[in-house]
Every structure is written in C-alpha cells, then in structure tokens.
Amino acid sequence: MLRSDPLFLAAAAASLGVLVILIIGVASFARGGEFNRKHSNRLMRYRIYAQAVAVALIVLFVAWRGAGN
C-alpha cells in the first residue's frame, strides 16, 4: 500500500518540514521585529535546502514506483 511505503513517508515528512519552515518564515516576516532581522535569511535558506531534499525524495519515489510497474 502507498501509505506504508517508507519512501513515500519520507517525502511526505520532508514536504511537511518545508511547510513548517515556510510558515515560520512568513509569520516572522509579517510580524517584523528582532527575530525577523536575525533569522529571516537563515529560515529561507533552510527552506530551500529542505525543499531540495523534498523534491529529490519525490522524484526518487516516482522513479522507484514507475520502475516497479
């Protein structure tokens, strides 16, 4: 089953991680203040890294499932 596939779960977790980082970054940008000045660039850099991992896992998952059919 699709939901028990470890690669699918890893891709889903990575995508959720991207979403969490993005929400924190956008919320800090909207509020402004000291936290935004200190961490906004770092948060968006982390989002890009996490997004690259998520995309790689999704591509790997699609390639793996496509090879199995």
Folded structure, characterized:
With 69 residues, the chain is mainly alpha-helical. It has one domain (2-68). The chain has 2 helices and no strands. It has helices at 6-31, 33-68. Helix 1 packs antiparallel against helix 2. The longest helix has 36 residues, at 33-68. It starts with 5 loop residues before the first helix and ends with a helix.
Low-confidence stretches: none
* SS field, number of helical segments: 2
What's the story with the biggest beta sheet? none
User: End-to-end span in angstroms?
Assistant: 14 Å
Task: Give the key terms.
mainly alpha, 0% strand, elongated, 69 residues, single chain
What's this model, at a glance?
The chain has 69 residues and is mainly alpha-helical. The protein has helices at residues 6-31, 33-68.
Topology (elements, then pairings):
Elements: H1 6-31, H2 33-68
Helix pairs in contact: 1-2
